[in-house]
Amino acid sequence: MSKYAGERYEFVTFHPSYSYEEFVEGLRPMPIDGGLNFVIEDGIFKRLVIKALCDALIPAEDDISKTAEELLELLDRIEQEDNVYGAYSRKKRELWNQILKMDRKDLKSLFENSTSFYLVIDEINRGDVSRSFGELITILESDKRFGEKYQLVVTLPYSKEPFCVPPNLFILATMNTILEKELLSEEMPEDIRKIRKLAVDALRAINEKVKELYDRDHQIGHSYLLRLKTVNDATKTLKEIWYHEIIPLIARVLL
Questions:
Q1: Distances in Å between the alpha carbon of 95 and those of 4, 18, 50, 55, 144?
Q2: What percent of the chain has pLDDT above 70?
Q3: What is the pLDDT of residues 32-56, one digit of tens each?
Q4: How far apart (Å, rounded) are the C-alpha atoms in residues 38 and 54?
Q5: Which pLDDT score is estimated for 142?
Q6: pLDDT exceeds 90 at position 24
Q7: Hey, which residues does 31 pair with through a beta bridge?
């Protein structure tokens, strides 16, 4: 059972001016001794990643468990407007150093029974997703997360901290656009149109079956297929989306 006492979800609404600095990390002016200093402040996504990560590491019951608990306490103080950014930054680096020394299989095992954390992004289509997520778009994929086969750790631009997304963090996004309009309304070669049309029809058929067997609230969102709009090899991309994202999601929903 999770030891984390705070909320396990965050909610944010995207808009055209929503930035990487708000979502991941950026500089914040801080009054000190009658003047201003700038500190690197974690955004909503990065804070939730740290909470999900620490929650999974605390049951390890060794040095890394203690570091995770201390980091959560410092993050809680920061969210209560306590200026402990220096200690918080040092503790994050200590935790990342400990994590990166762990065997990938041992790390993966810590997430197998971990509590799930959720980030809900409302109206994701209104924001500039590439601007808000930055380099993190690459590491959101399930096989690139902590402990997974292609675990990928990046270095963040402001803090220079290592960063990877834990598998117990899930992103739920809503959008007001229609998949068919997004994929089929523009001019394109006929072979690409056929693949996109197949994707739209297949998703519609699956969701009809989900509604019949389960309920309408568990339908598969169309954001999974929007990548088809920006790739050259639509057939290959559709196979990857289908087998690595949609089918596992169906299995979690219906089984």
A1: 17, 29, 10, 13, 19
A2: 93
A3: 667 788 899 999 999 999 999 999 9
A4: 26
A5: 87
A6: yes
A7: 36
Closest among 164, 203, 156, 208 to 184, alpha carbons compared:
203
- CB burial string 35-55: b at 16+ within 10 A, e below: eeeeebbbbebbbbbbbbbbb
Give one DSSP letter per residue of 179-192, joined into a string: HHHHHHSS---HHH
Which amino acid belongs to residue 109?
S
Name the residue type at position 20.
Y
Amino acid at residue number 139: I
Provide the percentage of residues in the chain whose pLDDT is more than 90: 44
Residue type, 104: R
The H or E element containing residue 217 is: none
**Tokens representing residue 223 in the block:** 């954001």
Burial tier of 168 (Cβ tally within 10 Å: 0-12, 13-18, 19+) = buried
Q: Which residue has the tokens 């810590």?
A: 110
- pLDDT of 113 reads 83
The pTM (predicted TM-score) of the whole model is 0.69
Question: Strands across the sheet with 117-122, in order?
Answer: 9-13, 117-122, 169-173
168: three-class secondary structure by DSSP = coil
